[in-house]
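Record 1 of the preview.
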Amino acid sequence: MVALWWLLADEEELPRLRIAWLALGVVGIILIGAGIIALVDRWRKRPFQSRMSASEQLAQFREQFEKGQIKPEEFERIRALLNERIREEMEVSKVPALPPTGEKPAGPDTPAG
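->
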């Protein structure tokens, strides 16, 4: 369509058409660039969401429940899910205890006995 219009245009109109298409292209590039800049700025300013532990999440949901923001059924379902995660976190974070007398555990650097 544009090519047909370009072919049918008079010789006097060609310079104006070229300028119009060039201006339209420049405006389009500027708009695309402004859109990209706006998206990057929105991404950069988004709030930092650190990963909350399951117990912190449960405390937050408990506050919402006490304020009446979530229903009791929803809170019970969330609590059941988070209790499983809390148990998993507790199993992962268990560290073997030192011997009761304060002795160093036998390892590759220390002789046993």
